[in-house]
Structures are given as C-alpha cells and as structure tokens.
C-alpha cells in the first residue's frame, strides 16, 4: 500500500485561514444543492409538459420513496465523512482507508438488497402509499427503473462522502454538474423520442436519471484512479474490502440518527401541509410556492452546515479544539451573512418571486404574506444547523436529533395548530421563528455545556 505521498499534497482542513477555507469548501456544496433542486424542477416541467398530470403524480409518489432512501443513505454517508475526517485529522491514513474499504462493501451490499426489493415489490410499495389508480402504471414503470439505478446512486453518494471527508468538495461538484446536465438533456429526448432516441414516455425520464448517474459515477471513479487519489483502494489494499464490523456498527449507529433528522423535517412539513390544506386550495398553492422558495433560502445554511461538519471532524481528529470553536462561530457568521443577504433580496422582489409560479389572484397575496413572516426565520434555522453540524462531527448525533424532534414536532406543529385555531391563518407562520429559536438556543446550550466533546464515532478507536 502506498502512503508515501507528501501530506501537504493532500487536502487538509486542519490548517490555513478558517474563513477562506470554509468559504471555498462550502461553495461547491451550495452550488451542488442548487443544481439538484433545479434538476428536479426542470425534469418536472418536461414530464408535465409532455405526459400530463398523471405522470407528475406518478413521479411525486416515486419521489416520496426515494426521499426515504436518500434520508437513510445521507446519514450513513455523513457518518463516513466524519469517520474519514477524524482519522485524517489524526494522520491515520490507513484507518481512513479501512473506512473506505468497509463502506464500499457495505454500500454495495445494501444497494443490491434495496434495488432488488424495489424492483420486485414496487407495485406493493406504491399501493401502500395509496397511489392514485390513474397514475399507478406510470409510477410502477418509473419506480422500477429508479430502483435499478440505486447501486449507482449509493455509489456516487459514498464517493462524494469520501472526498468531502478528505477535504475535497470541488471534484464531487464537477461530476454532479455532468450528471445533472445529462439528466436534463436526456429527459425530453427519451420521453418524446426525439431524433434517434426511442419514445419511452415516463420510463424515458427514469432512464435519463439512470444513465446520467451511471455515467457520472463511472467517470468519477476513473478520474480518481487516474489521478492516484490517496484514499483509493489499490491492489495492495484489497484486504481492506471487507466488512469490518466495528466500522459498520459506527456507520449505522451514527448514520441512522442523522438520516432520521431528515425524516423529522419531512414529517413536520407534512403536518403543516395537512393544516394549510384545511384553509382551501389558494392557501395550499401559496404555501407550496413559499416552501419551494424557502428551500432555496435554506441552501446556504445546509451547505455551510455540511462544510463545518467535515472541517470540524478533521480538527477533532487532530485535537485542535480551539480551531473547532473558531470554525463553529465562523460558520454561524457566514450563515447569518449569506442567508441574510438572500432573504433581503427576496423580500425586495417578493411579489415578483411568487408570481413566477402562480397566476394573478389571491394566492399571490397569501404567498407574499407567508414569505414576509417566515423567510427571516431561516437565518435562525441556519444558526442551529451549523452548531448541530459541529456537534455531530464529534460523534454526538442523538441530542441534535432530539432537539430537532422537540423544535419541529413538539413546538412548531402544535403551535401552528393552536395559533391557527385561536387567531386564524395569518398567525400560523409565527410558529417558524419560535420553533427555530428553540432549536438554536437548545443546540447552543448543548454546544456550550454538554459533553459532546467526549463522544466517539468508534469506541474501540484510539483517541488522537
């Protein structure tokens, strides 16, 4: 095994100016999040334009399934990011490679099992979701192809986690750009059968996603081996391609709570949709558009949160606790600045932003009102997201999950129902700022006084 490459040539998040490093590291993550959101929006436009409402309903049902899969794999991938980061920070390159080897085998086995279950039981899974009868056949065809591509989706997420854990956020972004470009280009060609391509309908959209992920994943692997990436598995490292159970246990025990955090957010939003739907279709449409706009507002916080997790993990591995503290508050300051600018910009052009999605009518006024009351609260959301990201980087993942559960499901949702019942529709939206403030305060208190610094990703691992 070759580990003789000079350490200075490897990505490192344990030295250099924190603000510049954090900005340059989080920027590709932010752009990647924007790309993925735009990809979903553009593909929905193609499907709606060419195939109609039933096809859109089919993809919506399939996307619920995929969200649950992505939630689980996101958490496990983040656990891999932290494990790799801590080992590299402690200069344990061999241990980091063992994480890569075990994760590769684990993800491969997991993806084959999940893909096979999805291929065989897609009809039954969609029936459990009560998929509309007129969209069922569309949904089955679409979902089966998406499940067939699960190994490539899981594989890409793992490689992305390895790269980010080692301090490289640019390479994943470049290949994500390739994947998104291919997906957007192939969707209309395969749906409608333009030029030499066959007309595949809803299956064409699924195949576009399948091939774009396959091509991007394979080319990314080829690129890393050609560049002799220092964490690649070589012939001398084949013994690392096995399930090391303490690593698997860490990936599951630490990863699932991080994935469940996404499920908590999704459940909270579903309860809000249920409440808003009771006020009629105009309110529902306005809330849907406000949610879409807020998803872009949250992106800086999510990107900075992901970046500080990787940076803090390496510095925790190196024992640089003072630098970890500076990373935390630099991340908070970045979030306040970037999200604040974005919120201010949307407020200036609030009606124009909502009008992009809705025809003239009362729904626009409702959407503008929702934005006026909720958008600024996402600055607070970013604060607790960044602090929670640092806490998770030590291996303390349960407390941030519990705080999210309390803030969203025990504070925001009940408060929204209570305020709506007592004071009407307009008062629902104060639940956002109150719940986010609760989450921010609890996370900061745990960061300041909790024992998160004593957490370990792998109990058997030697402390740095």
Structural description of this entry:
This protein has 464 residues and is mainly α. Helix content is 79%, strand content 0%. The chain has 16 helices and no strands. The chain has helices at residues 18-51, 53-89, 93-128, 133-148, 150-165, 170-192, 202-226, 245-277, 281-297, 299-318, 321-348, 350-355, 362-374, 377-392, 398-423, 430-449. Helix 2 runs parallel beside helix 4 (133-148) and helix 3 (93-128) runs antiparallel to helix 5 (150-165). The longest helix has 37 residues, at 53-89. It starts with 17 loop residues before the first helix and ends in a 15-residue tail after the last helix. The chain crosses the membrane at residues 64-88, 100-121, 141-161, 173-191, 206-225, 258-276, 296-317, 329-349, 369-391, 398-422, 428-449. Its main location: membrane.
Summarize the structure.
It is a multi-pass membrane protein. With about 475 residues, the protein is an all-alpha fold.
Detail the topology: elements first, then pairings:
Layout: H1 18-51, H2 53-89, H3 93-128, H4 133-148, H5 150-165, H6 170-192, H7 202-226, H8 245-277, H9 281-297, H10 299-318, H11 321-348, H12 350-355, H13 362-374, H14 377-392, H15 398-423, H16 430-449
Helix pairs in contact: 1-2, 1-6, 1-10, 1-11, 2-3, 2-4, 2-5, 2-8, 2-10, 3-4, 3-5, 3-8, 4-7, 5-7, 6-7, 8-15, 9-13, 10-11, 10-14, 11-14, 14-16, 15-16
């Amino acid at each position: 095994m070759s580990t003789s490459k000079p350490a200075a040539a490897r990505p490192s998040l344990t030295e250099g100016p924190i603000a510049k490093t954090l900005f340059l590291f989080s920027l590709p993550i932010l752009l990647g999040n924007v790309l993925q959101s735009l990809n979903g929006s553009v593909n929905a436009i193609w499907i709606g334009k060419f195939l109609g409402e039933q096809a859109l309903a089919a993809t919506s049902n399939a996307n619920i399934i995929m969200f649950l899969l992505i939630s689980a794999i996101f958490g496990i991938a983040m656990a891999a990011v932290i494990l790799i980061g801590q080992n590299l920070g402690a200069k344990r390159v061999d241990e980091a490679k063992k994480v890569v080897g075990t994760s590769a085998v684990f993800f491969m086995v997991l993806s084959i099992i999940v893909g096979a279950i999805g291929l065989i039981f897609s009809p039954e899974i969609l029936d459990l979701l009560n998929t509309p009868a007129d969209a069922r056949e569309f949904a089955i065809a679409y979902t089966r192809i998406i499940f067939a591509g699960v190994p490539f989706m899981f594989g890409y997420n793992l490689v992305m986690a390895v790269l980010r854990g080692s301090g490289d956020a640019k390479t994943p972004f470049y290949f994500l750009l390739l994947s998104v470009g291919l997906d957007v280009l192939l969707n209309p060609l395969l749906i409608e059968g333009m030029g030499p391509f066959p007309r595949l309908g809803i299956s064409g959209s699924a195949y576009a996603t399948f091939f774009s992920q396959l091509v991007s994943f394979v080319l990314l692997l080829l690129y890393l081996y050609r560049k002799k990436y220092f964490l690649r598995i070589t012939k001398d490292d084949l013994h690392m391609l096995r399930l090391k159970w303490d690593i698997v246990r860490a990936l599951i025990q630490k990863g699932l709570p991080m994935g469940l955090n996404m499920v908590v957010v999704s459940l909270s939003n579903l309860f809000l949709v249920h409440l808003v739907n009771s006020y009629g279709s105009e309110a529902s449409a306005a809330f849907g558009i406000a949610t879409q706009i807020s998803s872009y507002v949250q992106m800086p916080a999510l990107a900075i949160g992901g970046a500080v997790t990787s940076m803090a993990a390496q510095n925790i591995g190196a024992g640089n606790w003072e630098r970890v503290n500076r990373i935390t508050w630099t991340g908070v300051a970045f979030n306040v600045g970037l999200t604040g600018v974005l919120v201010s910009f949307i407020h200036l052009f609030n009606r124009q932003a909502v009008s992009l999605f809705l025809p003239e009518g009362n729904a626009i006024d409702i959407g503008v009102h929702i934005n006026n009351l909720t958008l600024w609260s996402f600055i607070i959301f970013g604060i607790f997201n960044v602090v929670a990201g640092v806490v998770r980087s030590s291996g303390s993942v349960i407390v941030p999950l519990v705080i999210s559960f309390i803030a969203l499901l025990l504070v925001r949702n009940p408060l929204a129902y209570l305020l709506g019942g007592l004071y009407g529709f307009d008062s629902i939206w104060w639940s956002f700022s109150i719940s986010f403030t609760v989450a921010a305060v609890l996370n900061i208190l745990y960061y300041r006084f909790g024992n998160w610094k004593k957490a370990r990703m792998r109990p058997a691992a030697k402390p740095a």
